[in-house]
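User: Quick sanity check before I run a bigger batch. Here is a single chain. Can you write out its predicted 3D structure?
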Amino acid sequence: MKTKARLGWFTTLLLLFHAVTASAAESSAPSTNMVRIAAAQAARRVVDFRLKQDEALAAVDKNLTELERIVNRAGEAKCDALVLPEDTPGLLNWVGANETLAKEVLPQAVKHMIERLGSAAARHKMYLVVCSDFTESDAGTYNTAFLLGRDGKEIGRYHKVCPTWSEAGVRQRGSTFPVFPTPDLGTAGLLICYDLVVPETARCLALAGADIIFFPTMGGAAIGDDDISIQALRVRAAENFIWLVVAQRGSGAMIISPKGKIVAEAKGPDGLAIADIDPRGEREGGDAMNWQRDMRARLFRERNPAAFSILTDTNAPVLAKVPIDLTQQEAGHIMAHALTVGEEEFKQANALVGNGKTDEAISAFERLRKTYPATWIDRSSQDRLAKLKGPDSLEARPNFANRSKSVSRSGSAGEGEGPGEGGALSAKYPGDVGLANDPDVLFADNFESGDMKKWDQQRGRVVMTEDMPNSGRWCVQMPMERGKNHGGDAIKWFMPGADAVYARFYVKFSPDYQYNHHFVWLGANQRTNKWSAFGKAGLKPNGTYYSTGMEPWFAWGKNPPPGEVNLYTYYLDMEPDRKMDKYWGNGFFPPGPGKGTAADKDRFIPPLNQWQCWEFMIQANTAPDKTDGKQAMWVDGKLVGEFTGIRWRNDMDLKVNCLWLEHYGNRCKRKVSLLPK
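Assistant: Done. Predicted structure follows.
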C-alpha cells in the first residue's frame, strides 16, 4: 500500500582547483613494460551434486584436465597472465547439496587445482588466477581467489568480502582487500563476482595501490540486464583508473582499460580475451586547469573521506526502510537446493508440460514457487503458470508478485491531484517488485511468513492457508458460517497516519459465496477506543473519525453474489438515511461493467472464484471548510471510480491511520481469501 499513503497486501557552479603536484614517479614518462593478459571464458563444467565423495573428486580431476588445455593455449599465445572464472573446479552445486562432506572435499579439490593448473601455467612461466570455495584453518569456508606466480606457487589469496545474502549463509565473509606487488604486472588485486556490485570494493583496491584487478566471476557488476552490467564493469575500471580483467563462465570474458574501454573480448566456450597492456599506463586525464599523466594523483586527493562515515555504518538508516524476510541461513539453503534438486524438479515439471499433463504440471510449478521463493525457479515457474492457466490467472496479471504486502504514504494532498490508471504509487512498480521497500510505504507484511504477528489485533476466524487454487502460495482466509460465527478481522495501526492513503490487496470469493456485510477499510481516528475507528452504526461522525471501505454490497438480496462493489463511507458531511433518519455509511458506487446482463449493466459485480487486484484510497480535505477531499478505487490496475467534493474532517491533525481487514455478516455461509500484495 501507499499513501498519497498506500497499503498493499498479498499470498519502495564554478569550482576553482589548486594545481596538484604529481610525484616524480607519476609525472615521469609512460611505462613501456608491456605484458600480455588473458581472461578465460570457460564453458560450464559442473560436478553433479548426486555424486559420492570420491566420485566428486574424480569429476573435479576431469574438469582440471580440460582446464589445463585452456592454460596451455594461453601459454602458447605467449600470455604473461591468465585468469580463470569463479568456481574453477565446478564444485558449487555439489557443495550446496553436501555441506558436511564439503569440508573434507574442498581442501583436496583445491590442492589438486593449484598443483595441476599451477604446474601447467609454470611450464609457460605465466601468472595464473583460480577461484574456488575453500575451507581455511579456522574451519570457515570462504569463496577464495588464488594468485599464482610464474613458478606456479601461490603469491597470495583473497577471501570474497561481499558475498550475496544467500551465499553468506554457509560461507564466511572476507575482511580485507590485500594487494600483491609484482615485478612486471604492477600491483595486483583480486575481487570475486558479487564483490564488484558494491562500488567500494574496487575503490579500496585502487586506494591500496592496485594497478590491475583480476576478477573471476559467474555474474556481472550490476543488478539488471547484460548491457547494464557491462557498463558497470566499464565504470568500475574508469572511476578507479585501473585495468580490469574479467574471467566469466560461458560468456562475458573481457579486458577493460583504465579509461573504461573494452580492449579485448572472448568468443565462444573456452574462448580467451587477450590484450597487450601496460599495467601502469593509460591513466592520463584532467581538465583545462590541471592535466595529470596519472589521474589517480588528483582523484584520490580530491576525495573527502571525513564525510564518508556512513559507508562504514553497519546499520545505515535505509535498512529500516527495506526489511528482508529471510535470514542468510534460510536464503543459503534455498539457493543450494535451487542449484541442485530444484533445477532437476523444474526440468521434471517442464517434462509434464511436454507430455500434455497440464494439471500435474500446474501443481508441480505451484509447489516449486512455494519451495524456492525469490529464485530463478520462482520467476520461471510463474511464467509457466501464466501460460498454462491462461490470461485470467493471477500469475498472468502484470502487477502480480508473490511475497509482499504494505501500507504506504504519498505526497501531501492537494487540489488537482487526481488518481490515475495503475493505482498511484504501485504504478511505479510493475509486478509490485520493490513496492514494500519504497520510502513512502508505512507498513509491510508478508502473509507467506505463515503468521500475522505484525497486526495489532485479530478477532474471529483469521487463518493462514496454502490450500488455495489459482493463488500465489499463501493467503489469509476469513470463513463465516451461519449459526457459528460472524467472520473475522485484523487491524493494523500506522500512527500518526497520513493525509492520503492507498490500500491494495488481492481477493477471491469462493464459488458458493453469498453475501457479506463489511469488508476492507481505511480509517482515521482520535477516539479513546481506537478499535471503533470505522464508524458507529447509525451515528454521524462528530469530527473524531472518518473512514471508507471497499466492499461488495448485497442490498438485502437484490444484488447477485458477492454483491455490488462500492465505497461504504463515514465522513463529516454524510447524508442520513431518509427512511430511518439514521446515519448509515453512504455508498459511493462506480459504473459497471457488471456481468453483462441488462440488470447488471450499471453495477460493478465482481466474479466468483477468480482472483482480482483491488485498490482504493482516501485523500483528506486540505482545510476545515474545504470540500476538496476525494476517494477512488481500482480493479486490476484500472480506475473504476473516482469521487470528489468530500469534506472528511474539520481537524487537520486527523489523518488516515489504520487498515481493517474485515469479513463480517450474520446471514449466510461464505468464505473469502485475501492475498496481500
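The chain has a mean pLDDT of 79.

User: Great, the batch can go ahead then.
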